[in-house]
Amino acid sequence: MRVYISADMEGVTGLVDAEDVQPHGRDYERGRRLMAEDVNAAVRGALAAGAVEITVNDAHGPMRNLLPEAVHPAARLIRGRPKQMGMLEGLVPEHDAMICVGYHSRAGAPGVLSHSFMGHEIEDMWLDGRPVGEIGLAHATAAAVGVPVVVVTGDDCACAEAAEWDASVRTVAVKYARDRFAAELRPAEEARAAIEEAVAAGLSAPTAPRVPDPGPGPGPSTLTVRWQSASVATTLLGLPGVTSTDSRTVRAEGALPSLYRQFGVWMRVAASLTNQPPYC
User: Fold this and answer.
1) Residue of 166, 184, 167, 163 lying closest to 175 (CA atoms)
2) Does the residue 191 lie in any domain?
3) Is residue 208 pLDDT above 60, yes or no?
4) Where along this sequence does the record place binding of Zn(2+) 1 (predicted)?
5) How many domains, the chain?
């Protein structure tokens, strides 16, 4: 069994603030160690289920958060950027299952450190008219690749968002949001044990590896993004296939996962035009 793990940071056990997840933040070094512990719990669960190959993609911010020596030796780590597929770099049809560790709810939704990809620069996103964030877009793209998402870990709001997208996905709430920068924390050892157990059970279930949710289907999908800055939307209109619905909202059609990769180009354009911190 080949297992793919996409590891974000905002939904990791114990982390609640930008200072925990941003390089140079006063608690970032501690945060990256906690991130590795959640990832390693997922790796142990995959090994218990019989995985023979495990790929971990560091999917947060600079994508150099996980220290190689801190990651379980049974896993191969994809680290650094740029990556053509960003948070899903290295995901291929040969993977039997995908695990999302440390994910968070979408922009504008309740949840610890909620946002969609770029702090507050992205105000809203829709996939085929359906509100979407990192969880939904990752799930839909993985489905298009042919890989089922088996487990999502994060706060209770992220878990609810994942369940709304696909009720068959197992979720592990490692904390319970009190506000965007506050949470009731599950004890660390308990949370990691729950991650390990959920991954082992999800991969060992009689139906695993499961047939992935068909997602948006084999035809083209439509991705719509509302930006905070009109200058980002205006600049993106210079890319082939991008159209506008208003001064700050652009859309494009295409088949996943190619549309996901194109969205990565949008974010690089936006980053070149703005200089805003991820959280405010």
Assistant:
1) 184
2) yes
3) no
4) 8, 10
5) 2
265 and 187 share one domain: no
> Are residue 67 and residue 161 in the same domain, yes or no?
yes
Which residues are documented as binding site for Zn(2+)?
8, 10, 60, 104, 134
pTM above 0.85, yes or no: yes
Q: Are residues 168 and 249 in the same domain?
A: no
* Last residue of one domain, picked from the residues 176, 204, 232: 204
* In a domain? residue 215: no
Per the structure, the complete domain to which residue 131 belongs is given by: 2-204
DSSP annotation of 225 reads: E
Catalytic residue among 24, 115, 120, 139: 115
Percent of the chain with pLDDT over 70: 94
Whichever domain contains 82, its CATH number is: 3.40.50.10780
Kindly write down the DSSP assignment for every residue of 263-277, as one continuous string. Answer: HHHHHHHHHHH----
What is the per-residue pLDDT for 210? 47
pLDDT band at 90 (very low <50, low <70, confident <90, very high): very high
Longest dimension (CA), the chain: 51
pLDDT in tens, 236-249: 999 999 999 999 99
What is the Cβ-side half-sphere exposure of residue 145, based on CA atoms within 13 angstroms?
Answer: 27
Q: Mark whether 115 is an active-site residue.
A: yes
Kindly state whether residues 97 and 160 are assigned to the same domain: yes
**Rounded Cα–Cα distance for residues 87 and 5 (Å):** 10
Query: Which runs of E-coded beta strand occur in 36-96?
Result: 53-58, 75-78
Q: Which DSSP category does 275 fall into?
A: -
Residue type (1 letter), 204:
S
Any bridge partners for residue 172, and if so which? 153
CA 200, CA 194: separation in Å to the nearest integer? Answer: 10
